[in-house]
Amino acid sequence: MGIHRHGRTTIRLALAAGLGIASIGAAPASGATTASGSASAAGTRAPVFAAGRAHAADLAVFTRMRREQARAWERGDSRAYAAAYAPDGDLVNILGEHMHGRQGIAKAIQRHFDRSLKNTRLLELEEHVRFVSPTTAVIVRKGCVLYGGEKACRPDTVSINTSVAVKYAREWLITSFQNTLVHPGGQPPVKPPSTG
């Protein structure tokens, strides 16, 4: 059984540091024209809704999931946040902490919500969605976590994450999520030791 590429949809969004799933707003197909979206808090363009019909319903589900996760994050509700994950899903956060299973994710994330992520929110910057089959999507996002009254990402909080979403009996769930901090200038945080 091979993997078939069913199209590529580029989406602008913002779901940061954490863990979530995507927003919607696809780039137009070649030759298509769309109205521009409004500016977000970070000065990027809001999503433009011009997804192909083949995936429009799926992208709408991703938008709903993303919004529900963002609201759960803001409330510090790890159970609601983890509801987007498959029962046996995996999450690797920016600290390299591996969480397994929806219940394990909820338990670990709640510790973060109660401490270092208390009173934080997610900010969407950009997103790219690629359907590798009718029931599997790879979602790559860039964003950050906002602390207190912050309105824009600090350079030390920007991350890029990758989610693999799988459609189980007509329900999209995240089966795998991995998040990595972006280092300014693309440089590693520590100079590797010299050899020789």
TrEMBL record:
Signal peptide: 1-29
tRNA processing keyword on record: no
Keywords annotated in UniProt: Signal
Statement: the UniProt record of this protein carries the keyword Zinc-finger: no
Gene3D superfamilies, sorted: 3.10.450.50
Protein's name according to its UniProt entry: SgcJ/EcaC family oxidoreductase
Organism encoding this protein: Sphaerisporangium dianthi
